[in-house]
Amino acid sequence: MSTPQQPPTQQLAPQAAPDRQAAPGTPYSLYTSPIPVTRTHLGHALASEWTKIKSVRSTMWTLGVFLLLVVGIGLLVASQTQDEDFGNVPYTITAFFGLVLGQICLITLGVLVISSEYGTGMIRTTFTASPQRHRVLAAKLIIFFAVAFVVSAFAIGFVGLMTEAMHSGGEGKAWGGTVVMGALYVSLLGVLALAVGSMLRHSAGAITAMLGLVLVPAILPAFLMLSESMRTIGEKMMEYNAPNALAKIFGLDNENAAGGAQLGLLVGLTAAAIAGAFVLLDRRDV
Amino acid sequence: MIELEGLTKRYGDKMAVNHLTFTVRPGIVTGFLGPNGAGKSTTMRMMLGLDRPTAGDVRIDGQHYDRLKDPLKYIGALLDAKAMHGGRSAFNHLLCLAQSNGIPSSRVHEVLDTVGLTAVARKKAKGFSLGMGQRLGIAGALLGDPRILMFDEPVNGLDPEGIHWIRNLMKSLAEQGRTIFVSSHLMSEMALTADHLVVIGQGRLLADTSMADFIEQNSRSYVRIRSPQRERLLDVLYAAGITAVQAGGETLEVDGGKAEQIGELAAQHHLVLHELSPQQASLEEAFMRLTAESVEYHAHSDTPAPSGLPAGAPPDSSAAAWGDGWQEGRS
Q1: Which residues of B fall within a CB distance of 8 Å from A32?
Q2: Nearest CA-CA distance, residue A263 and chain B, Å
């Protein structure tokens, strides 16, 4: 490595102390920008987050795979069923199978929306541009929820329409509500993932944590049921785990509960995680 | 104007920034100098509200950074060239920043043009070289056309052309009357660009002085003499009250700028001189001397800490006193 040759300081002095030197008392002209000053608000943050979410490939990938799973599997199931199968169930029931897998895509996207900023260092640029951190997180939550809800509602609705068209002979129940409930459930899972991602700040860690949250309560009851003392915990897990919640929403077990309690639990859990994310966001260094 | 008051950041039991108090004055280039790990980046992150100070305060024109309503139009900062999502194009990266501050998207094209990235505006940032990444980072800093600009080691890892470009850019920005706060660990770089100098070492303030004063006070001037009649010359100099030091071989060194006097003395005594040249020690040496002292001081101050003294307070106060002493001695 070559060290730059230090020029003699006699030559440096005039350069180093030019006219613009603002000695105390000397007047200097400060720069004023021609760009008009605007007070920033949530609307600006929303526009910024919308640009962010649509300008990265991971969004297209996760949502593309989600649509492929829900619509693809949905139509496959619809083509393999008979009109009589839709006697007492909503036509959107065919979307359930794709959603069980597809929810993982929304979880991944939810985590990436924030953890990719921490992973790349973009978060420092973001928070320098918008030092109101809560506004950034709120904008991310709103934009992600809107995108996830619209995409999943479209997917479920599309599958419902196609199934109804293919099996118009069946009775079928009114299925408008299942579109909203189902889309709400998987979107909230994604929002929960975003909040967890904000707290853990690590893509792989947050995705793993979310997968654990979705899958463990679905698998563990089988083992918990073996022990008498664990039976009640196992039953609760079985009732409230994510795949079962979706099953209830789409009337898979022919009950009329329709997953309201499960959705309520997810709303509570998501609200708690969001609260935690906001508290930690303000406290921690970036 | 950026004011730091007793700014302190502690990571565990390590003091990254220790009671830093100084002011970045408007309209000039302030160089922020210190060896690697001196706490420069931590200080800058605290200025931008990214890190929370353990103690003390930073204010920008009397306000905390997170209270600024339009931060990009106030301060433009380049902290880390790679602080961006690699999958996003240069244009979209700047666009999302612009939108968050209500800056029109036409400005994105302007800054891309300023930094010379228009041709690659639609390319993903992860394919950019270090120099291009740095340019994109600077484009982000210029986005709001801010009055204050903050650069953290902007020339690090750049090729000579890139260094030249950044140097000229900073000069032209300063000429427009903007406040520039730029960190570096290279004294030679600062000597070319800065008007004012803030030096830190081990998180403590070592110097807060104008560049001109620093040069004057810290560059040791001496006269180098070579002569085949070294012994006679030494006698003559001694008789005239000038102390000469042998600096290897035939070379003698005399402190101070007495070249004329020595030349006249030699002529009077018919002494042959092969060299008589006024010299000035480099600023880099002066800087290293300054920071070396801080390291030395740090080692001494740390030893009593574990032996029962409450950690924190005593080093703080003695550090402040030591720093003050330095400044008093210089001013």
Answers
A1: 147
A2: 33
Contact predicate B190/B197, CB 8 Å: yes
Residues of chain A with pLDDT under 50: 1-27
pLDDT at position B90 is 96
**If we measure between CA atoms, which residue out of B9, B149, B12 comes closest to residue B79?**
B149
Question: Are the Cβ atoms of A16 and B215 closer than 8 angstroms?
Answer: yes
> Does the ipTM surpass 0.90?
no
Look at A121 and B84 and tell me if their CB atoms are within 8 Å: yes
Residue holding tokens 């007495």? B258
Q: In chain B, what are the domain boundaries?
A: 2-214, 221-280
Q: Hey, is the C-beta of B288 within 8 angstroms of any chain A C-beta?
A: no
Burial B102-122 (b: 16+ CB within 10 A, else e): bbeeebbeebbeebebeebbe
- B1 contacts B165 by C-beta, under 8 angstroms: no
| A204-213 pLDDT tens trace | 999 999 999 9
**C-beta atoms of A58 and B80 within 8 A:** no
Give the domain B2-214 fold: Rossmann fold (3.40.50)
* Chain segment B24-73, per-residue pLDDT in tens: 998 899 999 998 889 999 999 999 999 999 999 999 988 999 888 889 99
Q: How many CB pairs under 8 A join A and B?
A: 185
Model pLDDT, residue B23: 95
For residue B76, is pLDDT > 90? yes
Q: Which residues of A touch B27 (CB under 8 A)?
A: 20, 22, 28-31
Task: Please report how many Cα atoms fall inside a 13 Å half-sphere around the Cα of residue B112, on the Cβ side.
Answer: 20
Contact B107/A at CB under 8 A: yes
CA-CA-CA-CA dihedral for B30, B36, B37, B43, to nearest 10: 20
| A95-120 helix and A203-219 helix, angle to the nearest 10 degrees | 150
* Chain B CB within 8 Å of residue A208 CB: no
Do A30 and B107 make contact, defined as CB atoms within 8 angstroms?
A: no
Q: Please name the member of B65, B104, B177 whose beta carbon is closest to the beta carbon of A28.
A: B177
Instruction: Please state the rounded mean pLDDT for residues B295-305.
Output: 46
User: What is the C-alpha separation between A260 and A248, in angstroms, rounded?
Assistant: 9
Q: What kind and span of H or E run contains B20?
A: strand B14-24
Nearest-neighbour CA in chain B from A133: distance (Å): 9
By the CB < 8 Å criterion, does A1 face chain B? no
Helix residue ranges, H only, chain B: 40-47, 71-74, 90-100, 106-114, 130-142, 160-175, 187-193, 211-218, 230-239, 259-268, 283-302, 313-330
In sequence order, the 6+-apart residues with CB closer than 8 A to the CB of A37 are B69, B70, B73
B221-280 folds as Alpha-Beta Plaits (3.30.70)
CB B190 within 8 A of CB B163: no
Tell me whether domains B2-214 and B221-280 share a fold: no
Spell out which residues of chain B touch residue A121, defining contact as CB-CB under 8 Å.
Answer: 80, 82-84
pLDDT for position A29: 64
Angle at A158 between CA A152 and CA A159, to 5 degrees: 95
Cross-chain residue pair B211–A16, CB shorter than 8 Å: yes
Residue B131 pLDDT exceeds 80:
yes
Say whether A127 and B175 touch across the interface (CB within 8 A): no
